[in-house]
Amino acid sequence: MNKGKWFFAVLALAAVIAGVWYYTSDDEDDDEDEEVSEFVTMTIAKQDYTVTRNFTVKIETEQPAEIRPQVAGKIVKICVNEGARVKKGQTLFILDQVPYQAAVRSAEAKVNSAKAQLTTARQNFEGKEQLFEKKVIGDFDMNKARNELEEAEAAIAEAKADLATAQNELSYTVVKSPSDGVISMIEYRLGELVDPSMETSMTVVSDFHRIRAYTAVSEEALYDLGDFYGCSIEELPAKLPEVTLVTYWGKKLEQKGRIDAISGDVEMVTGSVIIRASFDNPQGLFHNGSNGVLIMPYQMKDAIVIPQEATFEIQDRYFVSKVVDGVTHTTEIKVFPYNDGQTYAVTHGLKPGDVIVAEGGGMVREGTKVKIKK
User: Fold this and answer.
1) Which residues, at least 6 apart from 339, have a Cβ–Cβ distance to it below 8 Å?
2) What number of other Cβ atoms are within 10 A of residue 292's Cβ?
3) Helix (H) or strand (E) holding 247
4) Per-domain residue ranges of the chain
5) Would you state the CATH architecture of domain 37-50+301-372?
């Protein structure tokens, strides 16, 4: 065989080897395309589920009493310290009593004078009455004596009323606490003049054993609550579950409370509605004017709950990778608008018995063959 024939024989053999290699490589690629991926999956089941919403609240004690004087006068004594706990009837302030003591003495003198006049008028009437019976005097003199007696009786009644008023005003110079509670800051000092018409109260006594938490919710959120619990706005307080109150630094009030009032008015500018929750506060964790956080639960029965990491979001729409016959299918779902940061309550798109990819759902391509990862 000459050199030319050898050359073409070697070339033909190389072509055959290359074809075999290409065919084998193509088969291996096909095998790789058909490779099954392992994922953690979960089977959908129903369960009870609770999610909460937080609302910033302003605290008021149930009976905050603004202390204002009932008479005008200078403060001559402050009997309590700011922040002190006081009892009902305890003296807080004493106002200048001198002018009111003088008024009482003057009223007492007028009563005594009126008593003397009444005695004289009564004696005169009795004397006239005897003379009238003997027909010594006529009707005119008798009626005059009777009128003078009635005037004397009216005068003493008026004098006694003036004395009672003076005594009351004197008693008002001693300003007392209307209830048990805690004193706030005292706005006036010794020697300052106070009166009933002043704009700022002397102080406030707050009974912190029972408190109220106020917050504003949107009208839409309020109607959503009504829809969720299947009732009207008026029926909501009776339907809503107990709520929790937490300080702004995270300390929880042990006693649960209830939402017991919903305003009938909508604030025109913000479109919000005021709601009120009441709590027992035996340890005084909250004071009048405190801020806090109201935690309102949404309690669901037979809810479908999935981990958030099983979902992915595209333009405010939520999706999961549902596994059907071992192959993934991208499925849109609807979720409850509030969540706990780790799970979603699904309201549409899944049913009990469905299987979904539980971790990394957004990383799974449509049509991927799935092997359950144990």
Assistant:
1) 51, 308, 345
2) 23
3) strand 244-247
4) 37-50+301-372, 54-62+207-298, 68-204
5) Beta Barrel (2.40)
Both tokens of 357, joined, read 């990819």
**Residue 185 C-alpha from the chain's centroid:** 24
Sign of the C-alpha dihedral, residues 256, 259, 261, 266?
A: positive
Q: Report the topology of domain 68-204.
A: OB fold (Dihydrolipoamide Acetyltransferase, E2P) (2.40.50)
Joined together, the tokens standing for residue 348 give: 């549409």
pLDDT one-digit tens code per residue, 184-210: 999 999 999 999 999 999 999 988 889
Of the candidates 96, 68, 78, 93, which has an alpha carbon nearest to the alpha carbon of residue 197?
68
For 170, what's the count of Cα atoms within 13 Å in the CB-facing half-sphere? 16
Which positions ≥6 away from 209 have C-beta within 8 Å? 62, 180, 280, 281, 282, 284
Average pLDDT of the chain is 88
Both tokens of residue 221? 């959120």
pLDDT for residue 285 is more than 50: yes
Going by pLDDT thresholds of 50, 70 and 90, the confidence category of residue 347 is very high
Distance CA 127, CA 115 (A): 18
Whether the pLDDT of residue 54 is over 90: the answer is yes
Question: In CATH, what class is 54-62+207-298?
Answer: mainly beta
* Angle at the Cα of 168 from the Cα atoms of 153 and 187, rounded to 5 degrees: 160
Read off the amino acid at residue 298. Y
- What is the per-residue pLDDT for 20? 37
Q: Mean of the pLDDT values across residues 89-115? A: 96
149 with 128: CB under 8 angstroms?
Answer: no
Closest C-alpha among 230, 260, 218 to residue 242: 260
